[in-house]
Amino acid sequence: MQALREPLPATLRITGYKCHAKEILHCLKNKYFKELEDLVVDGQKVEVPQPLSWYPEELAWHTNLSRKILRKSPQLEKFHQFLVSETESGNISRQEAVSMIPPLLLNVQPHHKILDMCAAPGSKTAQLIEMLHADMNVSFPEGFVIANDVDNKRCYLLVHQAKRLSSPCIMVVNHDASSIPRLQIDVDGKKEVLFYDRILCDVPCSGDGTMRKNIDVWKKWTTLNSLQLHGLQLRIATRGVEQLTEGGRMVYSTCSLNPIEDEAVIASLLEKSEGALELADVSSELLGLKWMPGITQWRVMTKDGQWFADWKDVPQSRHTQIRPTMFPPKDEENLKKMNLERCLRILPHHQNTGGFFVAVLVKKSSMPWNKRQPKLQRKSPIDAGEAAESSPSVTVEMTASASTETSLTASAETGDRPVTETEGEENIQRTQNLESDTNKKDGVCGPPPSKKMKLFGFKEDPFVFIPEDDPLFPPIQNFYALSPSFPKMNLLTRTQEGKKRQLYMVSKELRNVLLNNSERMKVINTGIKVWSRNNDGEQFGCAFRLAQEGIYTLYPFINSRIIVVCIEDIKILLTQENPFFSKFSSETHKQAKDMAKGSIVLKYEPDAQKPDTLQCPIVLCGWRGKTSIRAFVPKNERLHYLRMMGVEVFREKRKEESKNKLEESQAIAKQIDKEMDMECRTKELVNSDSQMVDELDELMQEPLESALDEPESKTGNDKPQDSENETQC
User: Fold this and answer.
1) Spatial separation of the C-alpha atoms in residues 129 and 107, rounded to whole Å
2) Residue 103 belongs to a domain with what CATH number?
């Protein structure tokens, strides 16, 4: 309780899969952290950030610095700006320490198919993506992450987090996790159910472990929260293990310490699995992490403080609020077999963190209610697979998911009862008929069935895969000399009609998922942008320029339009808008001079003979103009690379801001002088023309009759005078 009353330390995690992770760590330790040593603010010594002992390779750090303190010292302000900028670039994630534990315990490998059931806001999803890309030399890992969330708005926050990592292996979907559809994939021309190798089940909870950062929990917490969430948590966990492959691993976690949300859910799941699941012993997997074992006995308390130790003691009037699954198993032998002590309870005072609960489940065999379910057999490759492959365009509509009746196992959606063979075959036949109808029209996936779940949110644009014979691709292939191994079938756009403005890329496995599940899955986002339309480029042979977002994925396949630059050239490209050829090194100048105008790749290779220079490769998108080269790199990414090269960007930024302010002040002063000058001129004109104005007034005041009586004099002698007066006016 004393620990809960203290502020929560700020923690950060360096993105591990990027080749720049070591450089960022080196920069933090040797520059920013050293500046914090022996620093005193308001009479107090600033605590230097320390690595989390249990996180691999010192990639996670915690500090007690608050935002208020960060803004009081120039050194701390610089450190704070560094954190903000690197977070926006995706090189650092600001994430609570205990939240980093579940992805680590999943033990993800690059070939794993992963489902994140309740993914928003996305910090754990980012960890999973990093693990997929453990080998940076592999552009397209065999595995992928499907990140789901029930809240449509939070899905876009999830997209933002995932986009920072620029991976072609992530898909964001919008479903209720307790009834997330069972997907299917094409395996050698046959449709098979998609089972996941790893599932992260970080369920909604009462959040009593987050009291240190969510102050409202102190006054809003009640035991009723846990009683209301228990059923949902159990349904989500049940749905998760149904979709887990045999031998796969699922991590169940909450930021609550209430056993009703923790051990009670696990015990109920283990009991109804009838031996198909077991708790894994992970005590040796995160060395240095302090925790206490799961508990085996607990009681249930109502909102008004009444305790119950057994289900039979609960009065009938309470049966809708309190359920049998909330109590510990009574059979001592079964309870012992469950090994609930293998659960991890992380308490706030153990290592100065929030409260957290984690359980790692391994699936040994099919769930008892799924054991008699037949394997899904679909149409032959000629009927289905080849038709989809050879179609001129394949569209995946991002629509609301189909009802549970049209999914593969209708009753398995809730896990309430076993599925008989007859029911399973009927469901499969019904799905087959549905798909055969929707695939009739040139391989274009149609809208979902009329009977569907209500899902709110924005209407998403479709995914349209580029067909093999599309005339759009050959100019791109020739211009960039793409290697024959380039997976052009994985290219897609987000429009069916008109000009294609952006080209995106997904992995082969995600393409398989997209093509085979349009009628049952609501996709929010997938793929990374690799090309953007640039109409000026058409005159140079290619209408699409490279996009920085996907350059690290695309670069291994590009064999032309590459300029190798030195570190000084990189600095010039990142600090100047359109530097002329003459500003670059002679070698770079020579390469650029011999190259036609248009989009280019700028590649920096580290020099092992110069250990003091940047030791990670850099790939940038650029444009070769008539006499200059320009880098197309977002602002935060520019700052990131400059920091890695030792350029003091904040000092330069302040100088630039001061210069801009001075220029702005001078411009305002000039404008004021100009306005005052105009005012003086106006006064002079008014004074000098006052006589003319008086004459005009007199003329206007003459009786109309005099003008009519003497028409000749007005049209004769007075005409030149009138003309002169009009000209002066």
Assistant:
1) 12
2) 3.40.50.150
